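Reopening this one. Same input as before:
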Amino acid sequence: MFYMDREKSTINQELKFLAETFKYDAVGINFLIELLNHSNLEIRAKAYHLLQNIDSEKVRNSISEGILLNPGDIVYSVYRLGIQFDDQEYYLSPREKDCGFYEDYRELTIEEYEDVQPYNPDIRLSSHISQEEAEAIAELSHRRMIQEWGIAPGGFEWERKDPDFQVKQWCIANNVPYQDEWDKLSDWEIKWKISSYLYELKNYELEDKFQKAQYIYNLDYIEPWCEKNNFPYDKSGDNWDNWKTLTDYLHKPENIALLSKFWKDGIGSLAFVREEIIQKQIYLIPELEELRRKIELSSLEEKLELLPDVVKYGDAGINLLIGKMNGFQLKVSEKAYQILQNLAC
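Same output, byte for byte:
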């Protein structure tokens, strides 16, 4: 009857019911162990987390490898977005070439700017079964990174271009001559020609209007962002003074959520979530994923202190060390090599 009732219940009912299986003592515990191989990933994960509360060698052995992931299962991975730089400023790397679930990092390929070089590649911080949990971790990771970069954009160009802006239509609407041969030029070249034309005419008001029309937000025109986010903007004051007042306000610890939004609106998020489909059978250890994230977001000194902790996670920890040994931070690579060498002795 116990198993017949289980077969008839829905997945949500099963998840709710799992927490009550402890009252079946050994029978319930054995049933939880069986559920580690259930066809539904959520049930496997729930059984894993419940078994962690049981002090038993049999249970410890059953969950030592982590949560089973089968081909076709969906996980939600949190990534630190790659950063590029040129002689003047930093750029967030495009996402379409992110590394996959089975990689730790990738080489960047730059197409838009030949002189832009990779600074930090995209790195997987952690993977999660719950999308809600992954989104929360991504936000926490983003907030930690922006605090490290500093209160100001930290070398990034703070702006949000208007994707609907059409330069030819703007010229027609504002009686600015537009030449048909410009259609063969790049968008940047066309805008430069119009700005130059208006500047030569000394029509600074229209030139300023042209610049503002291209952006939703721009550092030189911070007023729209302030108004949208209910921050007092002194229209009679100097733009620099308003900027200083804003950054001082965002610097306060209690305003971290607004600082996070400020970065996202004008630069982008430094962490993001991607849904990924598992291609081969593999195990996910939530505790190791949390440790991985701490290592990736920590300082060099903290990384060196945390690395030895991955050893207790068996083969999965060793694979992480191998990835770090082939990484781009020399001291981290040396530390990973040293740990692996000691394990081999």
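So the earlier flakiness isn't reproducible anymore. For the record, DSSP finds 16 helices and ten strands in the chain.
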